[in-house]
Write a structure and sequence with these properties.
six-stranded mixed beta sheet, Purple Acid Phosphatase, chain A, domain 2, 8 helices, alpha/beta, about 240 residues
Length: about 240
């Protein structure tokens, strides 16, 4: 099975549209979205509608949870809180109800999918550094052979061994080795933060046991201008140009 994995769209319709076009050229058997469909960007309802149309599974991101009343976000910084309030005031009721139905974690073909830390998905903890991956070792037996996560907006992959070894996998495409467990942060469609402003998605081939990162250029100017024209923090648009 070939699974296309997307995450952290953040209401960026231009990035999502180009990502899905690129993804479909690889003929995936299904698409899984790891959450944060909304937040930061201006195309709230358009992105919800498109993800609902194409994704066989969508998981609950922290921004989705905040907008749908499933978590407290009073501790977020001012601009992020305002963006969530703005989103909640504009999202269609049907999409809001959909967000309220989303799960935190999903299993498929021996893999685990979640927005944050796969062992405690409701806490939305990050896994984007070796030190954070190492913290999973005490629960090594509970990990799936491969866990796909979002949340950090970074393209990071870690291989763990029961012996206590953890190392980062540095490759755009790599195979999954027997005797290892992997935690793979899939990057972001709508707001990359790895200094590459192209949208990112991942293709997981369960038969070939390969994982491949894909980058997709999109119309950053149009997406950013929508943010500039809305009542949203200008920085949410400016950072799209830099991928930070």
């Amino acid at each position: 099975m070939r699974i296309g994995i997307i995450s952290d769209i953040h209401s960026n319709l231009e990035a999502l549209t180009e990502t899905l076009a690129a993804l479909e050229r690889h003929h995936p058997d299904r698409i899984v979205c790891l959450g944060d469909v909304v937040g930061y960007g201006a195309s709230v309802n358009e992105c919800c509608a498109l993800v609902r149309k194409v994704s066989s599974v969508t998981l609950l991101g922290n921004h989705d949870a905040a907008v749908s009343g499933r978590m407290d976000y009073s501790f977020y910084y001012d601009a992020a809180r305002h963006a969530l309030d703005w989103t909640a005031s504009r999202i269609d009721p049907d999409h809001l109800e959909w967000l309220r139905t989303l799960s935190y974690v999903h299993s498929l073909e021996g893999a685990s999918f979640s927005h944050g830390n796969p062992l405690n998905p409701e806490a939305y903890e990050y896994v984007f550094a070796v030190e954070q991956a190492r913290e999973l070792l005490p629960s090594y037996g509970a990990l799936a052979e491969v866990s796909f996560v979002g949340h950090s907006h970074l393209c990071k992959a870690f291989a763990l061994q029961a012996s206590g070894e953890v190392h980062e996998v540095i490759a755009a495409k790599f195979g999954l080795r027997r005797g290892h467990k992997y935690v793979i942060s899939v990057g972001s469609v709508g707001q990359p933060r790895d200094c590459d402003n192209r949208a990112c998605w991942v293709l997981y081939d369960t038969e070939e046991r390969t994982v491949e990162y894909h980058r997709v250029p999109y119309d950053v100017e149009t997406s950013a201008q929508k943010i500039f024209d809305a009542d949203l923090a200008l920085n949410f648009g400016k950072r799209l140009f830099l991928g930070v």
